[in-house]
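INTERNAL AUDIT FORM
Audit reference: QA-55
Scope: verify that the stored structure record matches its stored sequence.
Auditor: D.O.
Record contents follow.
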Amino acid sequence: AGSAPSATNDEPLHLEAVAETKAKHQIREAAETEERAFYEHRAPDAWLEALSPLGTRWQKPFLDQAPCLIAVFAQKYGIDSQGKTIKHYYVKKSVGIATGFLITALHHAGLVCLTYTPSPMDFLNRILQRPKNEKAFMILVAGYPETGVMVPDISKKPLEEISTWI
């Protein structure tokens, strides 16, 4: 992630690897509170219908079970050693590219990961004691796949549907 390009080379992200059991469980409890509210009250029926083939629901036991959760934070602005605010440019794009690099590196190392984006994710700042200039971007649930793990039977669009060659 640290080798990814970013606007003005400011690398506006922070990664926090969480392997400690208690912290992972706190994250699970907070995430499930948000997810339950989403599934039971906030999600439009069309969204729930789109999710149904994947078998997802508000319970997230993988947050306890995975060896490591990597919390990705986007830094809305930087702070120098004197406490001065430093503007960051194209933060979401830069953090997205860096996260893509990290996912690729994890897969190249033989690990698997699940991208998880509960909304809202403010609980991550509180649990992991991150500063106000950071906003939770994503949780990467990472580790080796369990034996017998069930992956949804999904397909991807063919290259012809997602690209044009001139």
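Auditor finding: record pair retrieved intact. The mean pLDDT is 93.
Action required: none
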